[in-house]
Amino acid sequence: KKVHPNALTIAGILCMGIPAIIFMYYDLTFSKEMPRWTYALQALGIFLNLQFDAMDGIQARRTKAGSQIGELLDHSTDALTWTIQTAVVAQTFVVMELGSLWAVFYHIGILWVYFTSMWNQKHTSVMKWCS
After folding, report:
1. Contacts of 73 (CB under 8 A, 6+ apart)
2. How far is CA 102 from the centre of its chain?
3. How far apart are alpha carbons 11 and 119 in whole angstroms?
4. Model's pTM, two decimal places?
5. Burial 59-87 (b: 16+ CB within 10 A, else e)
6. How far apart are CA 97 and CA 95, in angstroms?
7. Which of 8, 38, 36, 43 is nearest to 21 (CA)?
8. DSSP label at 3?
9. Is the distance from CB of 19 to CB of 42 less than 8 angstroms?
10. Which runs of consecutive H residues, i.e. helices, occur in the chain?
């Protein structure tokens, strides 16, 4: 009960940010193949980020520390996380020679899901993930 929910949110974005910085160190253009361990590190970062993202809301409700700033921080880091993840997947599509058009479709799909879920929450005050 002593951990602030925003600290969990920040920990989650660090789990995504550090592997992304390592990715950019190897290639800023995201156009050549990276060492295999960087892909494993990115996958671990995504997994840990999802865990922290799930825990921060639970912790906020448990400690009654939820706030609009915390919600803004959570949604902002979610958007940044999806951007990082989409860039990594797009780089994988390019390296696998699937073409950049597939990367664009993937990115549009991710943005559409994120946009519609945020739009739904804004107008209903409820975040629905399934029917």
Report:
1. 6, 9, 10
2. 20
3. 26
4. 0.72
5. bbeeeeebeeebeebbeebbeebbbbbbb
6. 5
7. 38
8. S
9. yes
10. 5-26, 36-63, 68-95, 100-124
Q: What torsion do the CA atoms of 20, 25, 31, 35 make, to the nearest 10 degrees?
A: -80
One-letter identity of residue 110: I
Find tokens 């671990």 and name the residue. Answer: 44
Please name the amino acid found at residue 82. Answer: W
37-89 pLDDT tens trace: 988 898 899 899 989 988 888 888 888 887 888 888 888 888 888 788 777 77
Residue with tokens 């156009």: 31
- 23: Cβ–Cβ under 8 A, 6 or more apart, which residues? 30, 34, 38, 42, 88, 91
pLDDT digits (tens, 9 = 90+) for 82-114: 788 777 777 777 777 776 677 778 778 877 887
